[in-house]
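Example record

The entry below shows one chain as it appears in the dataset: sequence first, then structure tokens.
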Amino acid sequence: MRKDPRHLSTIKDSEMAHESWKVFQVMAEFVEGYERLVHIPPSVSIFGSARLKPDNPWYKLTFEIAKTLSEHGYTVVTGGGPGLMEAANKGAKEGPSLSVGLNIVLPHEEVMNDYQDISLRFRHFFTRKVMFVKYASAYVVMPGGFGTLDELAEILALVQTGKTRRIPIILVGESYWRDLIGWFKSQLVPNDTINPDDLNLYKVVDTSEEIIHELHEFYRDRSPKPSAKEKEIMSGL
């Protein structure tokens, strides 16, 4: 049976219309994100597992880190979900600075936690990722799974390639990240897939005090807010 070209054309037109409307949905997510976040004070994006419970030591440490950051004037930004994201938002709420959740709509998980001063909902991971990066003055990466690894790899790649400004990337939990860091050193560097200097893009710490020390050292002679040149670089995100 020969296919009717008019029928195929109708299908293509319908698909194109559907995809075109998706563009407006993406635009709306960017516009709301920019409008809600452009005026927040210097912020720290905290990443970590959605699966860890309040009795987990990493949950308790994440709460402590976020509270300490809030007390030092940093807005805390998370993915807005349960687990370590909840711990971070909850800790930020205990301090004087803002607690922000960039929530993602997923089929089977991710319930918004109750500790958000500013809450946004995203359908698309890529629009949400831009918001994590665009207004951050530092990234704190707690233990997590594939989602956390994805966010860490994206941040490292953006800084490595100069698509975003250089800011502190802090991995928390030496014992958790040890084997991954060892793989960077034993496989990526010797095989020339990264440069040896790329190992300096991040720091590994174990306490909230070390995080504050790293931020103070990094911003000793500069502002946490991006310069005009850095804003120009980040306009390409």
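Notes for this example: The beta strands are 43-47, 75-78, 99-104, 118-122, 136-141, 169-172, 203-205. The first helix runs from residue 5 to 37.
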